[in-house]
Each structure stands twice: as C-alpha cells, then as structure tokens.
C-alpha cells in the first residue's frame, strides 16, 4: 500500500485524499470505501468535557434513609407488584412534601410516623446497636428479626436482666 | 485503451461492472479450458489490444460502466437506501444495556465527550450520541457490502467469540477473533505468501485485546487505510483511530448481541439490494 | 534441456546436496504430464522449495470449482493477487516439468547401470541402487544421498486461498490459521449443541441417551503435534495444540459425546496391537521326521541362529559345545529362562550358532532366538507370557561410542588439578 504508515496523523480519508491528489494512487484505482466515506463522513469528535455526577431528587431521601435506618428486609428482585420499604418511604416523603402541610424539617419524622401507622417498623442504627449490645454472649450469633424480641422474652429469661439494665442506662440521659 | 483496460482488470474496485462481460468471458473460457496457461492467455489478450472482443466498443464500455457507477451514486445519495434508520431505537439500546460504561477510574479522557454522566461511580454513555453514530456506521457498512467489499469482524472477548464467528460465517463474511499475529496487515505479503489482501471494512466488536492493551488490529488497519467501525467503551483509548466509533457497552452479552444482529441485518439487506439491482451476478 | 545432463552429474549433485543437508531433487509426476487447474485443486501438490527463488515459500492458490462451473456469460474480473499467482504457477509449472523429466531419466539410467528393466524400476529399486552405487558413511540417514518422490520429502503446501476476484475462500483467512481455527470453532459449536441437547433431554426426562457408558478411547490417542500441523498444513503453535487438546478432552467428557464420535475419531490415531504373528517361525521336519523350528536373534553386536527341536531331551549345543560354552552361570540360566517360562525344560533340544561380539551378546542373542523359535510350538497364552516378560523384544541397547577428549564413552582421562 502506498503512503505513510503514520496512523496517528489525520484520518484515513484525509490520507487517501492526499495520495489521490499527489497522484500516488490514480483516481480509478481508489478503494471502494473512498466514495462511501466521502458521502457519509464520520461525525466530528465533540470537545472533551467535564463529566458530571448524575443525581436525582430522591437521592437525598434515600441517603437519609440509609444513614438513619438499617436495611429493612431482604428485597425480592422478582417481585414487581409490591413496593419495597425504601420505595414506600420515598413515595410517602414526596407525597407529604407536595401537600405542604408539614414543615420541611419535620418531613422525615412525619414520614416515619405515617409508615408506622401503616405497620412498617423501621429500626435506626442506634436502636440496632443497643439491641446487639444488650444480648448476652450465649446468643451472640443470632440476628434480629421482627419475631426476635418475642422469642427472646419467652425462652431466655436470663437475658431479660441485662436488657432492662441497659435500657435504663439509655433512658437516663434522655 | 488496452492499457486502461489492464488497469481496470487489475483492481477490485470495478470488479462487478457489466462492461467486462465479453472480454472476461473470453478470459474465463480460456481459464477453464487451459487452466495453467491462462495467465499467458490473459497477457496475450491484453497486449494484442483485445482483438478478440467484438461485441463491445470502447465507448459502450464506458457508458455501461458509468451506468453502474450511477447506481452506486444513486444509492449513496439516498438518505437511507437500505432502510436501516428504523432498525434500532434509543429504547432498544437502553434495554440492551448499551449505556453502561466502566468504573470512573477506568475512564479514558478521550471518551469523556460521549459520557452522559457518572451514576454511583459508573460512567453512563450518552445514548443520544450513540444512536446517530450507530446509524452512520450501519449505513457505511451496508454501502461497503453493496459495492462488494469484504467485511472482517474482530472481537477479542472469549465469551462472545463463538457468536461473532458464527455471525460472520452466516453472512458469508470474514472474522478474526483469535490472537492477532503482529503484521497480519502490515506484513501481509510475507504472512500469507501472496499479494496483500485487505478487507474493505473492519468491525471491532471490542477494541481491547486485553484489559490493558488496545487491539493491534486497530492500529494496523489505520496504518493501511482500512476503514474501521468500533464499539468503544469508556475505557478505550483508540477512539481517534477508528473511523466510525460507536460509544457503547462492549462487555454485556445483551449489548453485543444487539450490535451483532444489527450488523448482520445491515449486511444481509445490502446483499439483497445488490442482487435486486443486478450488480451481484455471481450470487445468482 | 535437462535430459542432456549426464545422469552421473546429477547423482553427484545429489551427493553434494546430501552433504550440505539440502534436499535433493524432488519431483512430482502427473499421469498426463499436462497440469490443469482442476487437477491441482483436487490434489495437494508439493513443490520443490529450493529450485526457484521466485517460487520460494509461495502458496499456490487456485480458483474454487464453483467459479469454473459458471456459465461464461457471467461477469468476473481477475484480481491482481490472482493474476500474480497465476504467473507464478506458470513458471513453477515449467520448472516442475523439467524436473519430472530429469527424475525419469535419472531413474532409467540407474536401472541400466544396475542391469535391470528401466520400465519396471520401482522406488525400492532406486533406493537399493543408490545405496549400492553411492555408499555413504554419513551418520544421519537424512544426510545420505537419495532420490525420492517429492511427496515423501517435502511438506505439503496449501492450495486455494482466494478466488479469482481476490476474495479469500475461507471465512477465517485473516487469522492465518483458517483450518485449525475453524476446527476449534466447530468444537465449540458442537459442545454448545450437546449442552443444549442435554438440557432438552433432561427436561423431557429422556435419560436413556444420557446413560450411555462414557466413550472408551483407550484404543486410540490424539494426533501428535506434528501430525496436526501436517493435517492442517498450517504453522500451528505448540500452545495452540495444547488448547486444542483441552477443548477436545472437554468434548469427549460430555455425557452425549458419543453422538460426535466420527468427529472425535477424525483427530485420533488408532493404536495397532503389537502383532505377535508378523513373521512367526514355522514348524519344519527334518529327514528323520523330527519337528523343529528356526529363528534368529540379535543382542548388541552379536547374532545368533537357533534350531529348536521339539520334542527333545534337553540337549543344548552352542557353537559345537554344550551349555559350558558359557562359563558364567548367569548366562546359562538366562539362556534357559524362556524354556522354564514355557515349562518345557528338558523337552526341547537346542542347536545354536552365535557370532560376533562377546558372551553377553551371544547369550542375549541366543535367548531371543530361542524365544522366537519356541513360539512355533507353544499356544497363545504362553506366547503372550513370553511377550510380557520381554523375551520377544530385541534389547535395543548398543555400545556407546567413545568420545574425543575422554577415555571412553563416559570415562574421563585421569586429571589432577596440580
């Protein structure tokens, strides 16, 4: 192939045009792609730009949710009918916000209370931590679920004492 | 006249022109019967100023050639000759997960104009830019096939290798998804022991050889003036070497399948048109 | 014209070649002497690499048959690559014709010198004649003069890489190893098909096909690296060959692999059973009506000829002496080992004649000859026993040559530092 092998200088179209202009390749010997690329020129490369983060309004609510509350329950990915707890929280938040009856700084609290009324109990990180600490080393491996407190209170009477003590400790500063 | 004919004979650009018929049939006849002696016969045929041809006068030759040229011209003037515009929509691209790029840390700066933004540390490719680029690439590919060009499919992702090879085989084109030997294009004469043969278009379904290296074929094709279409992910550093870059996800089976189907359709449509327009007489 | 060259000159030239370790003249002959393209498409031709610089390393490709079948009214242009090829093929063809003529004449001259019929002079006769006329002491057999059909000497070359219009014929042409890679592709496709079929059968609960016992490929082995390269006529790399083996093993281990048996067997060599009866000694009868068999044996440089009479009285004669021919008891014992193995000690007479070498060689050579001769009288089980104990195998060990700069094969001269 005639021509330079410096691939970084100019596009192939520009280089082939140069070869044709200089006569290194005759007009009738031009490759078949030449006419096509002439008719469908590649789009110019846009100038480099600063890439922005993509953020949505609900991100603020979601971030607050995860900062405050622990992961609710495992999500069923194939369940498209029921909304997840997070989704309901976000929806409720925006619903309350649109009503404008609640002051902005009370919105999260109000959402929590509304959800509670609907039967969804959210556990804050602080609560979870206190529960973990309150457990005796005997049952250390277990994790908390909704049914947990009942079973604990029924079966393990020994655990009651430290739990109550700890509760009292927490109550004092409040 | 003879000289110009020789030149015409020698270049694939004009290989399908109707004006070749009589003299070429003559050559073919010789070729069939005398086989090895044909090279000499061709030369004799040419050097004697094509005394053997009776049916076609030089002027006729050129009118027929230009007729055919005008077919190509008409095709290329047409905005969407092969009906490829409606083949793919933004929705299809999105559903095939073409918008997913790589981690921000892997981004190559040259790809930043094609990136819509970063969502939770992952680059999202701007599909609104991808779509017209993809249309152009498909159109280009179809026109090359329409003019009888060879298409070479390249992909170095082992997961997609069988699929890509299968597709290339189905559309009767070529594929090279195996380790690239240095000099496959640049040292072609020695590697294949014949005059160099290059494809008219290389389609790179991914442009990375390994995670860290660019496919050597991109560079070699660019050196030898072979046009390229490439799906460029956000970590690709050779988008400037590719004539028709298509920003998109090259790592998901879904997106790769979409691209393969699109190119396959484009090639098949172009070949059908070729048959319809009577250019490809060998196909019948 | 080549026929004017005296044949002796040619042989001498061959000899020179041999010394330089360059291949001698190689010629391929075609029945009609008139090469056609069709002809070449059908057979894999070999070419003399050396003779013409322009032809060096060229792959001669030919148009596919489908183009030849086309009506002549079709349009076609001959690509530059194809034209160049055809010119090369032409010049090469001329060279080949000359070489064919040379080879034929050389062969006839050889026949005349040997006083044999030139028309019925076979390749075996040629080899014999050259060995006789040009005895060579060169160690490497490849370096000795020879006159052979090129098919046996030169590696096969590829034909048919691109068509008249310059379009490669193979869809993997650009990979440079199209045949090899297309097989890899086939393996992958077959594997995928088998997997899909397996899923289907399982879902339909048709397990009888899946419960077929696994393929028993013990009687064959994979093509060797060299055989694979020769099969594809491509420079496949060692690591690619290993990759091929891995893929094939994976295919074989699939429960449905029996469906792809023909494909698998195309890449396997059948192992031939070591035949016991290649040249079994026959039972003969002497003038007195005693049955005996004869056999030869070798060990190291020694050679032995044994006549084994059965039934007999246990008499052993070696070069006119009895068993005391060997002073070493070990030799006497090892000599009689095959007899004791067959349980015929005292039931046979042995007349042995041993030559060359020393007692160890004699002993080993006689033992081998006795075992072979015994095969004529004993049944198959005993024969198998003899084979398994190595009685029927020639001991391949030979005396190791002395090396220059040292006292013997391994021993070094006495050497003191100071």
Account of the protein in words:
- The complex is a heterotrimer of chains A (174), B (284) and C (418).
- By secondary structure, chain A is an all-alpha fold.
- Helices cover 49% and strands 0% of the residues of chain A.
- Chain A contains eight helices and no strands.
- Chain A has helices at residues 12-22, 33-39, 57-68, 85-99, 107-117, 125-134, 148-155, 160-171.
- With 284 residues, chain B is an alpha/beta fold.
- In chain B, 44% of the residues lie in helices and 12% in strands.
- Chain B contains ten helices and eight strands.
- In chain B, strands 5-4-6-7-8 form a five-stranded parallel β-sheet, sandwiched between helices. A three-stranded antiparallel β-sheet of chain B has the order 1-3-2, with no helix packed on it.
- In chain B, strand 6, helix 9 (216-223) and strand 7 form a beta-alpha-beta unit.
- The longest helix of chain B has 24 residues, at 253-276.
- Chain B is globular and about 55 Å long.
- The two termini of chain B are 31 Å apart.
- Residues 1-65 of chain B have low confidence and may be disordered.
- With 418 residues, chain C is of the alpha+beta class.
- Chain C folds into four domains: 8-62, no CATH class; 73-153, no CATH class; 175-270, no CATH class; 279-388, 2-Layer Sandwich (Ribosomal Protein S5, domain 2), CATH 3.30.230.10.
- In chain C, strands 3-4-5-7-6 form a five-stranded mixed β-sheet. A two-stranded antiparallel ribbon of chain C has the order 1-2.
- In chain C, helix 7 (178-203) runs parallel beside helix 9.
- The chains are: A mainly alpha (174), B alpha/beta (284), C alpha+beta (418).
- At the B-C interface, helix 1, helix 2, helix 3, helix 7 and strand 5 of B face helix 2, helix 4 and helix 7 of C.
- Chain A: This is Small ribosomal subunit protein mS23.
- Chain A: It comes from Lymnaea stagnalis (Great pond snail).
- Chain A: One of its GO terms (cellular component) is ribosome.
């Amino acid at each position: 192939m005639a021509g330079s092998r410096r691939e970084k200088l100019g596009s192939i179209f520009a280089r082939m045009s140069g070869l044709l202009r200089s006569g290194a390749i005759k007009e009738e010997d031009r490759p078949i792609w030449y006419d096509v690329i002439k008719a469908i020129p590649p789009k110019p490369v846009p100038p480099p730009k600063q890439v922005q983060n993509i953020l949505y309004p609900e991100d603020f609510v979601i971030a607050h949710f995860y900062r405050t509350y622990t992961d609710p329950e495992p999500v069923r990915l194939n369940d498209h009918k029921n909304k997840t707890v997070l989704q309901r929280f976000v929806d409720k938040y925006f619903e309350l916000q649109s009503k404008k009856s609640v002051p902005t700084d009370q919105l999260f609290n109000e959402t929590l209370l509304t959800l509670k009324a609907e039967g969804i109990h959210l556990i804050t990180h602080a609560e979870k931590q206190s529960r973990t600490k309150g457990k005796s080393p005997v049952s250390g491996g277990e994790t908390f679920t909704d049914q947990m407190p009942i079973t604990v209170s029924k079966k393990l009477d020994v655990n009651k004492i430290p739990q109550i003590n700890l509760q009292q400790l927490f109550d004092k500063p409040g | 006249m003879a000289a110009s004919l020789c030149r015409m004979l020698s270049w694939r650009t004009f290989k399908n022109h109707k004006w070749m018929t009589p003299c070429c049939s003559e050559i073919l006849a010789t070729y069939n019967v005398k086989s090895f002696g044909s090279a000499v016969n061709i030369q004799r045929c040419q050097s004697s100023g094509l005394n053997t041809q009776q049916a076609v006068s030089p002027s006729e030759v050129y009118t027929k050639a230009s007729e055919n040229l005008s077919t190509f011209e008409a095709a290329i003037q047409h905005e969407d000759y092969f009906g490829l515009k409606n083949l793919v929509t933004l929705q299809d691209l999105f559903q095939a997960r073409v918008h997913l790029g790589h981690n921000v840390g892997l981004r190559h700066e040259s790809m930043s104009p094609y990136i819509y933004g970063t969502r939770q540390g992952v680059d999202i490719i701007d599909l609104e830019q991808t779509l017209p680029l993809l249309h152009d690439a498909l159109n280009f590919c179809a026109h090359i096939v329409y003019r009888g060009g060879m298409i070479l499919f390249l992909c170095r992702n082992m997961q997609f290798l069988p699929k890509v090879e299968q597709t290339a085989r189905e559309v009767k084109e070529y594929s090279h998804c195996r380790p690239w030997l240095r000099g496959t294009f640049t040292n072609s004469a020695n590697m294949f022991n014949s005059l160099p043969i290059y494809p008219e278009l290389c389609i790179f379904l991914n442009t990375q050889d390994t995670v860290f290296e660019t496919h050597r074929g991109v560079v070699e094709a660019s050196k030898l003036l072979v046009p390229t279409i490439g799906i460029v992910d956000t970590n690709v550093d050779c988008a400037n070497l590719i004539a028709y870059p298509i920003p998109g996800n090259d790592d998901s089976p879904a997106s790769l399948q979409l691209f393969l189907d699109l190119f396959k359709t484009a090639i098949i449509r172009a070949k059908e048109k070729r048959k319809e327009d009577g250019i490809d007489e060998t196909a019948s | 014209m080549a026929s004017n060259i005296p044949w002796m000159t040619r042989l001498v030239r061959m000899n020179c070649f041999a010394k330089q370790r360059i291949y001698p003249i190689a010629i391929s002959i075609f029945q009609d002497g008139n090469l056609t393209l069709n002809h070449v498409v059908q057979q894999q031709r070999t070419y003399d690499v050396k003779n013409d610089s322009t032809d060096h390393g060229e792959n001669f490709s030919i148009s596919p048959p489908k183009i030849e079948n086309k009506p002549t009214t079709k349009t076609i242009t001959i690509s530059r690559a194809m034209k160049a090829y055809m010119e090369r093929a032409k010049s090469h063809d001329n060279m080949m014709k000359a070489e064919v003529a040379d080879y034929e004449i050389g062969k006839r001259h050889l026949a005349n010198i040997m006083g044999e019929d030139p028309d019925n002079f076979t390749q075996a006769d040629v080899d014999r004649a050259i060995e006789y006329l040009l005895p060579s002491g060169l160690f490497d057999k490849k370096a000795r003069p020879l006159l052979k059909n090129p098919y046996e000497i030169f590696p096969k070359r590829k034909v048919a890489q691109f068509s008249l219009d310059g379009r490669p014929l193979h869809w993997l042409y650009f990979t440079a190893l199209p045949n090899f890679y297309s097989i890899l592709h086939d393996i992958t496709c077959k594997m995928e098909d088998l997997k899909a079929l397996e899923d289907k059968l399982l879902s339909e609960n048709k397990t009888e096909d899946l419960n077929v016992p696994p393929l028993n490929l013990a009687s064959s082995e994979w093509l060797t690296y060299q055989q694979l390269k020769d099969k594809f006529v491509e420079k496949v790399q060692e690591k690619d060959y290993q990759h091929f083996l891995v893929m094939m093993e994976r295919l074989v281990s699939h429960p449905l692999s029996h469906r792809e048996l023909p494909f698998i067997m195309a890449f396997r060599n059948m192992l031939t059973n070591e035949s016991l009866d290649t040249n079994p000694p026959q039972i003969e009868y002497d003038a007195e009506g005693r049955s005996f068999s004869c056999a030869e044996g070798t060990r190291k440089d020694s050679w032995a000829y044994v006549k084994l009479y059965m039934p007999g009285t246990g008499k052993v004669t070696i070069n006119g002496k009895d068993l005391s021919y060997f002073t070493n008891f070990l030799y006497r014992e090892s000599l009689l080992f095959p007899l004791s193995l067959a349980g015929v000690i005292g039931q046979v007479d042995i007349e042995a004649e041993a030559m060359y070498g020393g007692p160890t060689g004699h002993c080993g050579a006689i033992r081998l000859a006795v075992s072979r001769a015994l095969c004529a009288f004993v049944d198959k089980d005993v024969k198998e026993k003899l084979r398994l104990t190595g009685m029927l195998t020639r001991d391949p060990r030979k005396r190791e040559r002395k090396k220059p700069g040292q006292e013997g094969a391994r021993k070094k001269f006495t050497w003191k530092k100071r």
